[in-house]
Structures are given as C-alpha cells and as structure tokens.
Amino acid sequence: MTLTVSDLGYAYGAKRALDGVSFALMPGFTALLGPNGAGKSTLFALLTRLFVTREGRICVAGQDMARAPRAALSQIGVVFQQPTLDLDMSVAANMRYFAALHGIAGREASIRASRALEQLGMAERANERARDLNGGHRRRMEIARALIHDPKVLLLDEPTVGLDFKSRQGIVDHVHQLAGQGLTVLWATHLVDEIRDSDGVVVLHRGRVLAHQRAETLRAGRPLADVFIEMTASEVPT
Amino acid sequence: MIYLVAMLAIIRREAMRFVRQRSRFLAALVRPLVWLVVFAAGFRAALGLSIIPPYQTYITYEVYIVPGLCGMIQLFNGMQSSLSLVYDQEMGSMRLLLTSPLPRWWLLLSKLLAGALVSILQVYVFLAVAAGFGITLDPWGYVAVLPALVLSGLMLGALGLLISSTIRQLENFAGVMNFVIFPMFFLSTALYPLWKMAESSQLLRDICAWNPFTHAVELIRFALYLHPNLWALLWVCLSFALFFGAAVLGYDPAHGMTRRRKG
Q1: pLDDT tens figures, A28-40
Q2: Nearest to A74 among B95, B96, B101 (CB)
Q3: Where are the domains of chain B?
Q4: What Cα–Cα distance (Å) separates residue A230 from each residue in A31, A151, A221, A234, B53?
Q5: B4-38: per-residue pLDDT in tens?
C-alpha cells in the first residue's frame, strides 16, 4: 500500500468536514469521486499537511504523516485545484524553483525538469513563459512539476476544472499513463467521464466514504453517472 | 545543502519578481525622496535640533531623517511582502512552498531574508540619491549599516509575516496601513528625536521608546555613524525573535490560523 488513510476526521468548528475516512491505495489510478462540498479539498489539505488533525492517520509510502511529516511529504507530488504558477517565469524556471524547494539544484534539477516535461509531452515548451501557455498546457506543466522529485504518490485536486474537452481528455490520458507506470494516483473529481472501468473509485459524500471499489464493479453494468447520483442522493444528511 | 538550495531559490525568485516590478521599485524610491526633499525642507525651519548622539555637530533636519527614511523603506517593504504573502495564500503559491519537505520555519526564514535583501537594495539606492542631494556619510558608514539593515529588515519582515498569518483576505490589508505602518512610523524616532517628543507629551515619548521601529531606526542611525548601539541591537533582535516565533506558530498547521482557512 502506498497511501493509507485510516479513520480520518476533521471539523471546521462544529461542522464536520470529514468523518471516519479510511481507504488504502496501491499503485494505479484511483478517482476520489464526490459532489461539491463532499470534503475532497479538506482531505487534500490533510494529505499535504496544510491542515493537521488528531483524528486518524495518514501513511505515505510507509511514512506516517504525523510522526515523520517531512519524509511523508517528500513522497507526495501535488497539483492543487487553483493554479500555482509563477506566470512571469519560464516553464523551466518554474520547474527549477520547485525542484529547489525539494533540495534539488543545478544539472540534476535541469535533467529532472526536462524528463518530467517530456513525460507530459511538454518538452518543447520549456522556454516559454508560463503566461503564454494555454490552460491545458499550464496544467500539464503543473503535473510535470509535481513529478520532479520522483514521488510515489501523485495527488490531483480537480485538475481539469475550467479546461475544454480536448485538454481535459489529454490530461486524463496522460495521468492514466503515469498510473500505468507504477505511480499511485489519487484524482479528485466530480466528473464521472474522467473515470475508466479499470480505475479504483472512492466515493466521498458529506465527509464519509460511501464506497471504494473498481469502477466496473461499482457501476455493475449501469452508467457510472447514474450510480453516483443515486448514491449521493439517497444518503441521509448527518 | 538541501536547505541552502531552497533558500537561494526563494531569494532568487523574490529578487526576480522585484526586478520585474519596476513601478514598485520607483514607488519605493520616490516615497522617501519626497519626504527628504519636500517634508524635510519644510520642517527644517520649524525644528531645532540639538546635538544628540551619534551626531557630534549640529545637523540639518535632512541629515536627521535619512536613517528614519531607510527604516521607512524597510517598513513598507516588510508590509509589501506581507501583502504578497496574503496574495500568495489566496492564489496558492504559498501552498506550494508549504508542501515542501523542508521545515516550515526555514522556508519562512528564507522568505524573510529574501524580502530583507530586496529592501536593502532599495535603501542603498536611496542613500546614493541622498548623497546626490549632498547628504553624505563616512564611507565606512555605508558598510557598517549593512548588518544593521539585515537585522532591521528581518525584524520588519517578520512583523509582516506575522500579520499575514492572521489576515485572511486581501481586503483587510488597508487596515494594516492605518493601524500598523502609520502609527509605527509616526510614533518613532524616524522624524523627531525622543527628547523632542517628550517636550509635547511624556506618554508619546514612552510609546516611541517602546516601539520596535524606533530601535530599528536607531540601530541604522548609529551604524551609519559608526557608533555601536547595543540597546537598539538587543531590542531589534528580541522583536525579531518574538515576531518570527509567533509567525511560525501562525503558519504551523497544528496551532495556527491556517486551521481556520478552508482549503
């Protein structure tokens, strides 16, 4: 297991955002499927240690997030919902800045940057200013950047928000490819068309995990969208 | 080594940002120059200054306010970086910084040092222009002031950092101007010496004497004239430790204000 979450809870004051969330992921693509307000972003904030909680445990590649936060964080690559690019720097400079935040510098940083950009089909854009890239390419750059320190786990929080269909499709394909190469991917979304039959699906609703299954098993021959709507509509509010 | 790599990258990024924002540089330079040229000229007639350390002769008012204006540059710069931190938090690049596996206090210290260096650059340009107006110092004074500027820059930056950890929205920033920058600047020795303040009100004098900005200005003033001022040094160091400690706590997910922010 590369990412284990057990019995995780979090509250904003009296409002419980996450309650007893548990799942364990192996390398491959897992979608974190939930409607808006399900607690996806809170879960991501906990997984990246922007928030901490006393309830439950997070383990990344064998490292406990509470006991060894830095070892755990070094195994995580993350793409946030909001873009986090320095628009006036070139793609390569953005990549190198992030590498340096992980302590990678000089030639090593450049090699890793070009390798990561190549993986995402962005090699030829290394010297363009981030501002000049379209939305899809900016996102790809952020994914490449998240891979620069060779993490075992890649977290993406609704990475296709605001992109056109073609860019979305491209990014979904690329990330599935990465998952096929042995990366553990957790992809938060509320769009069922980004999920393939072979993917794992964790359904999150009102801060609880309703299901964790292969998409094919979960939908049982019906369209995934119908199953998802049914599940999230029938749940009684807590 | 890993630590240094990250620190240098953060400093380089801040420096490049600053170089790109030429209007910010001009504004940062024009502000103290306006004070020096316009304000000081008007006040010269109104204010008589006696000989007080570190000065050994009578000085004109322009000469008196130069260290205060150096401090002003750093004060504004500290608040400006605080503003950009709040902006970063809203925009997400702060998250990127905070998810780095390096310890947070180190990342925040790097950020502070970067801001301090940018402010020092502005101070030296200002001092050069002031020299153009005939306000020159002992050449060694320009060297001796460097460590003082690093310390005062870090202290004022840490204050900005602390403020940024408590402010959640950019809109609240106007309050910072009114309740932090102006009182800190006017209730300090930047514009008038303490004894002058005491003439009008003992309370104001006491507030000035407690104001950390006063000590930053005095540290700069004494360094420019090659006199040690250990009291100011102590105050600036203590204030830095206090502001920085509180800011690190504010950015610590287990204690701080980030807890209240919804992601």
Answers
A1: 999 999 998 899 9
A2: B101
A3: 2-260
A4: 18, 36, 15, 6, 80
A5: 999 999 999 888 888 887 787 888 888 899 888 88
